[in-house]
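This section describes the prediction task in plain terms. A model, or a person checking by hand, is given the sequence of a single protein chain and must write out its three-dimensional structure as a string of tokens. No templates, partner chains or ligands are provided. The sample shown here is typical of the held-out split.
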Amino acid sequence: MPPTGNSEFASNDRASLLATKSNYEWVAEGRHTELGLYFPDTMVASISSKRTTHSAAEQGRRDRLKSAFEDMAEVLFGSNATIDQKNVGEGGRTCDQESNGRKGNLNRIRLINMATERLKDQCKQIEEMKRILDKGHG
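The expected answer:
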């Protein structure tokens, strides 16, 4: 169907708007008919369903990730550590268990770096213990 509206301005305005997003995005927002885009109802419903499904799946992924980071922080630092929900860089606050008995914040990047360092230290300790045991049995 051709777009509605007789004025050249309206046509140019629609063309400018259409150039800002894909047809898929206009359909997903439910504004496609305003711009003279007409699609079968089944296709519009399918796009809406995909968007809803994707949003739910993405929220589930974020929730699992948050839970995993919280578990990691608790294993590394006990119950006094919390995860800073802001995605801040290295300059973010870190876990500080001794400061006034309050929970310290720990951003995710810093948590991963600290966990990596702790694992490296534990691997060194294991190797040292193996050497000590080998000397004792040798």
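For orientation: The radius of gyration is 28 Å.
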